[in-house]
Amino acid sequence: MIAVAVAKPSHLPFTEWRLDLFNSLENLPESKNAIFTLKNGSEEALREVARLKPAYMDLDITVSAAFVAEIRSMGIEVILSFHDYEKTPSDLTALLQELQTVEADFYKIACMAHSAIDSLRLLAFAKTAPKNCLLMTMGDTGYITRILSPVVGRPFTYACEEVPLVPGQLPYNVLEDMYGYSSLNTSTNIYGLIGYPVEKSISHVSHNRVMQQHNLSSVYVKMPVKPEEFEQFFPLARTLGVRGLSVTTPLKEAVMAYCTTITPEALAIGAVNTLRFDDKGIHGSNTDGPGACAAIEKHVTLKGSRVVVLGAGGAAKAIAWQAHALGADVTICNRDRVKGHALAEKIGCRAGEPNFAYDIIINSTSSGMPIDASLILPGSFAMDVRTIPMDTEFLIEAKKRGCHPIYGYEMFIEQAILQYKTWFHDLDVSDSLTKAVLGYVGSAS
Questions:
Q1: pTM to 2 decimals?
Q2: Catalytic residue of the set 252, 303, 346, 421
């Protein structure tokens, strides 16, 4: 039997019976707590299963208005549905109006999203759609529409029991346990992570746990966004009422052009990893540098230390700038030497190969091993900014060489603590965030 849970804020999930995936429609039991879906089924077959009196029947837009009326006359609520497995239609208003020419109890639009922009565009449309409309996307970003369904006023959404029937579905227990689905409503504030890719970040796990523990009436979602999508993304984020965002690779520099204000530190660094939205605009800041240095200084003092920063991207800029400001002797080592020297000149430090004595080496690149392992000095402090896995290739090699490891999750915790203070008026989430991160990282490594 193929069954899909339908998550409802009432804590009473219905079950969708995908009858089109059954081997046989004979000897079906009555199920008053169900939605019967039989795509491309004949009216005769649909009429037969309707005699089992499900709570709902999901009928395709191609059925006749007379047949919809017949099913409703049997005391069954009808979900009239439209599916587009290729794209998200450009004119959602016209599509809904076409559906509404047939009188039904609910109208469902499920379409393929090829980017987060498609999913966010559908969510923005949902903000003003009639309350009996079910709106969702399929595809890699479809999960966004499932999570935020109650936030944009939808009566329910579709989930799966374990294995998704279409890309974008989430298991019901994930919707509920991780995102607190049943407690979400139109007053819930939206926070999230933007970047490309975002899959490896653990922020959706840690941040939702913290938000629930502190009763912040908020939800945190990851959104894969590319720099060229900003022109569409930020108006949609505004429409949806997004309150804050974490920013990761490769957006930390490009996002600055869309900020109304930027802190002096972030301006000096040339990168932003935190956005706060309010009525006056979008406010950018950077917690990467202070977060990384706070994590390092729990192991070793930066002032007077010789520090090698591998990379010259957004994280490297922030860490190198902050370490230099705290009195460290910083050297930038980057594969693109021109970019490395440009960053070093901006900060006021050096650029070059790590072929000298140093105290601390930091891998801020996306590479598992950005330098020859022989250049990792025994006895030094070695840090990797990546969170998962806890023991990265770089740190494994460093520990083999007798180095003292500083894990990426330590930086993640420290920078996220500062983000919460930015978003929630100096709220201290140190203990709850640390427990959430350690609990997840430990189980994932």
A1: 0.93
A2: 252
